[in-house]
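User: Predict structure, ligand GMT.
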Amino acid sequence: MKIGIVCYPTYGGSGVVATELGMALGIKGHEVHFITYNQPVRLNFLSKNVYFHEVFVEEYPLFQYQPYELALSSKMVSIVERYHLDILHVHYAIPHAYAAFMAKQILKSKGIDIKVVTTLHGTDITLVGSHPIYKQAVEFSINNSDYVTAVSKSLKRDTLRLFDIKKDIHVIYNFIELNKYPEHSKEECQRSTLADENERIIVHVSNFRPVKRIEDVILVFDKILKQIPAKLLMVGEGPEREKADLLVKKLNIRDKVLFLGNSQEINKVLCYADLFLLPSQTESFGLSALEAMAAKTPVISSNSGGLPEVNVNGLTGYLSAVGAVDEMADNALKILKDPSVLQQFKQNAYLHSKDFELDVILPQYEAVYRAVKKGCC
Ligand code: GMT
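Assistant: Predicted complex:
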């Protein structure tokens, strides 16, 4: 099949899922065309059957805001026409589903019936999409997609609660490619480059937005540190980075916290990890938690959104109410203090991540494309 994928090219989970999906589809013989404003960060340029089309936005003095949706719709129309695409799969409703609706209408006027699949990822619904300034357009674009998927049951529930939705929403979980996290990686990992032999290594990966509650990450770590030797690796960049730095200074733990910036090799960083922290305010799925589990790392997270669908309390890690930093630290210590308990949680996390293997999820998207192409819905 010929599939156009529209996504954000940045480090966020939606772009990562879209990119990994596209590359996997290419390997399976589909022709995949990425349409976005930059080359997606996880896109391996030489991937089989994969093409990238950059959306340019011309500056003009009249525009306070550049009309990206317009440029994107036009680009989608040209790519669908030029490469005879069957499907446009847009990741993150804003503005992609809206731009896809416009492209569909333009193509209709030319006698081309392009099918649009929209995947909802989280903040496009919970934080941004349901805001009154966007709500009407987001609701309309969801209702006018040919097929809608959400990355967790929780996100489906949120979408139905926040919008007047006339379409079925189908849950297709996010996925990982376990072969990118080889079982032997932990043993090969040079932990000594980052921590002393007796220190537990704790990792957080995110875009450092307020929703991630970065200060809770540091507070939990500080409480752990009071009980056992440990290091915290903070991976990512974003608006809360400065605040995090200030808190680290205030707590006088600067030599125990490493800010590593953005990384394209999360699996290599996770190779060092004994524990992953994700105390988010809300999280539709928590792809970073799943990536940690795939690298045999138990997860201490909040219980918000779709996190309970990924992190199983008492098995792969622990879940706590948002902001319950004392409980999170206590749970972390339960895992970290006893090497045999830690080993058990690592193994459980790894085994549970297998439920989200690419091989399990990819056929679900392929089935959607086939059904939608036939005009199922
Ligand atoms: O977490 C973010 O702020 C980035 C955001 C995105 O759209 O890239 O992530 C959302 O989509 C991911 C992939 O489906 C999910 O794993 C994240 O849980 C979700 N983030 C939130 O709901 C806050």
